[in-house]
Design a protein that fits this description.
Number of helices: 2
Radius of gyration: 25 Å
Helix content: 55-70%
Distance between the termini: 55 Å
Strand content: under 5%
Order of helices and strands: HH
Structural class: mainly alpha
Number of strands: 0
Length: 59
C-alpha cells in the first residue's frame, strides 16, 4: 500500500513538472509596469473601518 502511494506521488510530480516546463511564453510587446496603489485602496480601508465601527456601536 505504501509503495502505491509513493508511486502515485511520483507520477503526479512528473506530470505536473512536465506541464510547467512545457509552457512557452508567447512573443509580444513587453508588459507595462505595475500600476500604483492610489486613492481607491484608501477609500476601501476607510469604508471598512467605518462599517466596522457602525456594526460595533449597533451591537
Amino acid at each position: 500500500m505504501k509503495n502505491k502511494k509513493h508511486f502515485a506521488l511520483f507520477i503526479m510530480l512528473v506530470i505536473t513538472s512536465m506541464a510547467i516546463v512545457g509552457q512557452v511564453p508567447t512573443p509580444g510587446p513587453p508588459s507595462p509596469p505595475g500600476l500604483p496603489i492610489d486613492g481607491g485602496l484608501i477609500f476601501l480601508v476607510v469604508s471598512g473601518v467605518l462599517y466596522g465601527v457602525k456594526k460595533k456601536i449597533k451591537n
